[in-house]
Amino acid sequence: MGKYILKRVLQFIPVFLGVTLILFALQNIVPGDPIKLIGGEKALTPEVELQLRVKYHLVQVDDEGNAILDENGDPVPETLWNRYVFYMTGLLQGDLGSSYQRKLPVTDIFAAKYPYTAKLALCAIVLEAIMGIGAGIISAVKRYSFWDILVTLVTSVLVAVPAFWLGMLLQLFFGVQLHVLPISGAGGTASQYQDWVHYILPAVTLASVSTAYCARIMRSQLLDVMNQDYIRTAKAKGLSNRAIIWRHALKNALIPVVTYIGVDFGAMLSGAILTETVFNWPGIGYEMFRAISSRDWPIVMGGVTLVVLVVMVINLLVDVSYAFLDPRIRFDSSNKNA
Amino acid sequence: MADFKFHEPVMGRRAFVGGSLAASSLAFLAACGKKGGSSTAGSASGATSGAIVNYYINNPVCIDPYNVQEDQGTQVSFQLFDALTNFDYDKNEIVGLAAESWDASDDATEFTFHLRKGAKFHNGDAVDAEAFKRAWTRVVYPKSAVAMEYGPSEVSYHLSLVEGYDELAAGDTDEFAGLSCPDDLTFVVKLSAPYADFPFVASHPALAPVPAAAEDDAKNFYLAPIGNGPFQMDGKWEDGQEINLKKFDDYYGKNKAKVDGVHFTVQKDVETAWKEFQAGNLDICDVPVPQIDSAIKDRGESKDGYTMSDGQHTLLGGEPSVYYLVVNNTAAPFDNADVRRGVSMAINREAICKTLFKGTRTPADGIIPPGIDGYQEGAWEYSKYDVDAAKECLDKAGYPAGSDGSRGLKLTLSYNQDGGHKEIMESVIGDLEKVGLEVVSDTPEWSALLDQYQQLDYQFGRLGWIADYPIMDNFLYPLFHSDSLGGDNRSGYSNAEVDKGITEARATVDDQERLDKMHAVDKIIAADCPVIPLMFYSHVTAGSDRVKSFYLDPQKHAYLNRTELNA
């Protein structure tokens, strides 16, 4: 197991280099000059524009830090490769550069905002796991009962309802009409609620669609497993229904569900743009979205770097968890049947 | 506003029966989660946080004066800092703020500002002439401590007419040659060219004074600026969340803050902010356009459009900003003035304002919006809707209508589709098709579009212009002077007469005379019709019942120190 984990961690390196390199190359392909976008409708003066390009290493500079000009007096763009090397050097020293639009260091922005994304994702994923798995088990065990129909119905609706719309409805009902839950934000000095209360509606909204999927996967998997031979054997042995489900069926049925939840958790940890926008959540999803539309590459790069790392770690944890759920799965290279 | 039936979040049997199980349990959780164990819910009549004004803003770009630019950062900075001067819309004149008075030399190249005695920064430092010199230098000097940390100021152009600007901006020196401080309370500005309106420039929040801490501790100052205004920072700018201000007790001015503080709630979009407002958590909030009718009905409309009082909580006053079609004057077919005039008169501005903006924008009758000293109704003869005259102009331009009504002229309209521009442009295209013009849309990505405009590689497009200072010069010079070509003059318009007129007006010290000269220039431009003004912007701001008095000037500066709340 230790060897397997080490191998996987080492695999991070080429994946990480590949992703960042591709993303860096994309900067040159995607149209839009980020420096021009800073000014927008009000043009920047040429001097300021050049100073900004120098600051962000977009043009070649001489030893004294002045931009090198070509024969037409225009600055010479820095090569993609040099910029990549520069970026990676900074990255290894913990420096992700500064935002073009917001001027703040990218590390400061993410240090302030990532905890909000992570905490919200954690709340949502716990909610998703408990509600999704629970509802799936109930509807599989009590197949065709009232509860099964209810779960099927509710999950159908949740899958169909766009999350942001659900969020708005929740805001209107609990916030504007009933005055029992905060409408937006993550707390702060002016809020009349404790900070944790601010997590309820965004977490419910964020978890809604995936909870529905999760319940459906759980239901079909459990039904599938219940038809397996070894379950029939267990029944023939005279085991109680409860023991069959908890001890034998559930563990096997959970594997696809855990995969799904793991992937979903990774996605949530990458930020949820719609939920964050509707609830004015100070997370990274909206920050990334805004950065992409304004070609604020340092934030995009920093965000993707972070997300790639997080997703790789989550995937590793999910893969490792298989071994605990299904003893047949082994990661040793000696067992080719795994 | 809605009538709230369930005010009490405390759970009882009735609520359990009445609501769903999920709803009730969530509500129960929330009841536990209220601060201070209080079970009183916010009411529709306003927020419940003492004499603190809860104010909606978007995340600012910058609140440190050195790079204050858009309206959100300006709003915060305006509360923290007092610049030398301020435009008083009641008196319709520029008045002293941090400066008590000023003298201008006869040739309008030298301005001597006399500062108020005893003025202090929030940290106790004196507001002296050096503080202004320091502030203005760090706006221009690319190697100032703040510029090294956060990049050069993007608004250094404010000072481009001050002597020594070029050398300082190039980083060749750290001394701003045109500024001097003969004594603590005298600040002298020398310009490299006459500009009688300079006191208006000095009113911009970016040119407010800063204490030594701004450079010594640039990083902290950037997030929690120390100013000389009626409010001071309470904590630091919480990125994407909030900015808190508290009353500055040692404020030198006569308008000390009447409220205890301001809570700027940073929201991502106006829809969510509006829900917070409806729930009573915000006192001042922008109104989403679809809600404007109900807001006026519920909140009552302010008589003058800028002042809130009991029963008059919706502000719809005009702003000094204009939305216009930018036209490439250097290439066919728009190098022909008659084509520009014809296109301009074919557009039904009224319909766009009414249908798309519910009257929150007004049809433009020139490039100068109302609220700017020198606005004249109907200033631009071709900025009106007159289909017959439009057809005549197009006939004259050499594009007569054929038997099928088509003029055989195909135009390309280049614009960005986001931000609601698509609907406006579709309306424009519809109008132009009605007079027999064929219009195709070209919708590149925004920065590519800006580049096209700058390179004059387009036929016509759209832009907005927001005045930095409420003077005619701030429209005519950047948009039409040939010095602004390659910068904000994106129509390629160049007229020696206009250049001469503006330069002359700038050198004219007498206010009325200068205004007359500006009008003469505006008239020449109007006849050429180099751009096509479409709409003027207005406030769309609502206040809660807590707000007893509140004033938002046309430039969207909120006078929060004068604001009063109902007890």
What descriptors fit this protein?
heterodimer; A: 338 residues; globular; B: 567 residues; alpha+beta; six-stranded mixed sheet; 30% helix
Low-confidence stretches of chain A: none
Helix/sheet category of chain A: mainly alpha
Uncertain runs of chain B with pLDDT below 50, 5 residues or more?
Answer: 1-21, 37-49
Mean pLDDT figure of chain A: 88
Oligomer: heterodimer
Biggest sheet record of chain B: 6 strands, mixed
Structural class of chain B: alpha+beta
Give the % helix of chain A. 55-70%
What is the rounded distance between the termini of chain B? 21 Å
Largest interface: A-B, 64 and 75 residues
For the biggest sheet of chain A, the summary is: none
Number of helices of chain B: 19
Strand line-up across the major sheet of chain B: 15-19-14-18-16-17
Assign a percent range to the helix content of chain B: 25-40%
* Overall geometric form of chain B: globular
In short:
The complex is a heterodimer of chains A (338) and B (567). Chain A is an all-alpha fold and 338 residues long.
What does this structure look like?
The complex is a heterodimer of chains A (338) and B (567). By secondary structure, chain A is an all-alpha fold. Chain A is built from 13 helices and no strands. Chain B contains 19 helices and 22 strands. In chain B, strand 8 (231-233) and strand 9 form a beta hairpin. The longest helix of chain B is centred in the C-terminal third of the chain and has 18 residues, at 511-528. Chain B is globular. Chains A and B meet through helix 2, helix 3, helix 5, helix 7 and helix 11 of A and helix 2, strand 10, helix 10, helix 16 and strand 18 of B.
What is the topological layout?
The complex is a heterodimer of chains A (338) and B (567).
Chain A: H1 2-29, H2 34-39, H3 46-55, H4 80-92, H5 106-141, H6 146-160, H7 163-177, H8 200-226, H9 229-237, H10 241-269, H11 273-278, H12 284-293, H13 297-325
Helix pairs in contact in A: 1-13, 5-6, 5-8, 5-10, 6-8, 7-8, 8-10, 10-13, 12-13
Chain B: H1 13-18, H2 21-33, E1 52-57, H3 71-80, E2 85-88, E3 93-96, E4 99-104, E5 110-115, H4 129-140, H5 145-150, H6 165-169, E6 179-183, E7 186-190, H7 198-201, H8 213-216, H9 218-223, E8 231-233, E9 242-247, E10 261-266, H10 270-278, E11 284-286, H11 292-299, E12 307-308, E13 314-315, E14 318-327, H12 337-346, H13 349-357, E15 361-363, H14 387-396, E16 410-414, H15 421-434, E17 438-442, H16 446-454, E18 460-466, H17 473-480, H18 496-506, H19 511-528, E19 531-538, E20 541-543, E21 547-551, E22 564-565
